[in-house]
């Protein structure tokens, strides 16, 4: 049995640093999911919209910061990113994006069985089986990363002059 390390009660351990092999396995899963999404024909912008919407639902500031930058890098617009939380109330998203976002939300909040069935049926009308699988896997994976960052309290730091976010002394 190991002896507990003495830390202030408010200080969290970074789970990714504390258990690096588990974190590497999660990163490996993420890489496989992103490859499956690309093979299924999902645009990178859609993958990032899913990452962002799930992170909004979960309230993960760290992942919102990372994936907002990734979505912009992939070519999404500030307007679409700004209204993503209210995507149902706009015409800025395609039918496929809307189906994927609804399915990602149902994956993140599975308690509402009726909403889950509705979103799945809508997805079946516009997405292939491979795309549905990829959307669900993207949502599952970002949910895991959200929980990792929330429980670790990964900080979001101000951008420096080189347009990088400084996170706990390391560049991201």
Protein model, in words:
The chain is mainly α. About 65% of the residues lie in helices and about 0% in strands. It is built from eight helices and two strands; from the N terminus they run ααααααααββ. The protein has helices at about 15-20, 20-40, 45-60, 60-75, 80-85, 95-110, 115-125, 130-150; strands spanning about 165, 170. The protein has a two-stranded antiparallel sheet with strand order 1-2. A hairpin with a 2-residue loop joins strand 1 (about 165) and strand 2 (about 170). Helix 3 runs antiparallel to helix 4 and helix 3 (about 45-60) crosses helix 8 (about 130-150). It is globular. Mean pLDDT is about 90; it is low at about 165-170.
- Helix/strand-derived category reads mainly alpha
Count of β-strands: 2
Estimate the mean pLDDT confidence.
Answer: 90
Q: How much strand content do the residues show?
A: under 5%
Total helical elements: 8
Principal-axis shape = globular
Q: State the distance separating the first and last CA atoms.
A: 34 Å
Q: Strands of the largest sheet, in order across it?
A: 1-2
**Global Rg:** 17 Å
Q: Main sheet, how many strands, which sense, barrel? A: 2 strands, antiparallel
* Helical content (DSSP H or I, runs of 4+): 55-70%
Helix-strand pattern = HHHHHHHHEE
Which spans of ≥5 residues are poorly predicted at pLDDT below 50?
165-172
